[in-house]
Amino acid sequence: MQISKGVEWAVHAAALLNGLPAGRGLKAEALARYHGVPAPYMAKQMQALSKAGITRSSRGAHGGYRLARPADQISLWDITAAVDGKGPAFRCTEIRQNGPCGLKPKDCKKACQIAAAFAAAERAFRESLAVISLADIAGQVVDDASPEHLTAIMQWLGKEAEPLSDSQS
């Protein structure tokens, strides 16, 4: 299973949004600059998070993104599903019905053992991401960061965070 880099970028962006003071937001361009990634691609991830209800955006000169709900109510699975979709990673094509010894469709009433194994693995993967919250990640970042780095982050946020207007999308 390959997770897109968009998921990585979205989790990093959401973790940074978690540190914003109330009533402030960050533009997608600022998030892209902070992480050193292309602005159009970061904007795409932020739109996906907004569409999923993970972030809220305010438009206009004093616009930007902020979390739509508390970080402890946003899981890594929520972000992964918002960016990469909720569809299964493994899609069985019933290859067991092909070739000279292929099974007849009437003999394939049960899911193939291979498809069942991948489905079980994917359930475990999703469940493991669903129990890790954005607050857990943010807490680990704070615990692992030096005081100097945390100060630098807070100073950057103080300079870049915009007061939000009332217009939301």
Automatic annotation (TrEMBL):
GO terms for cellular component: cytosol. InterPro entries: TR_Rrf2-type_CS, Tscrpt_reg_Rrf2, WH-like_DNA-bd_sf, WH_DNA-bd_sf. Transmembrane segments: none annotated. This is Transcriptional regulator, BadM/Rrf2 family. PROSITE patterns: HTH_RRF2_1, HTH_RRF2_2. Pfam families: Rrf2 (PF02082). One of its GO terms (molecular function) is DNA-binding transcription factor activity. NCBIfam families: rrf2_super.
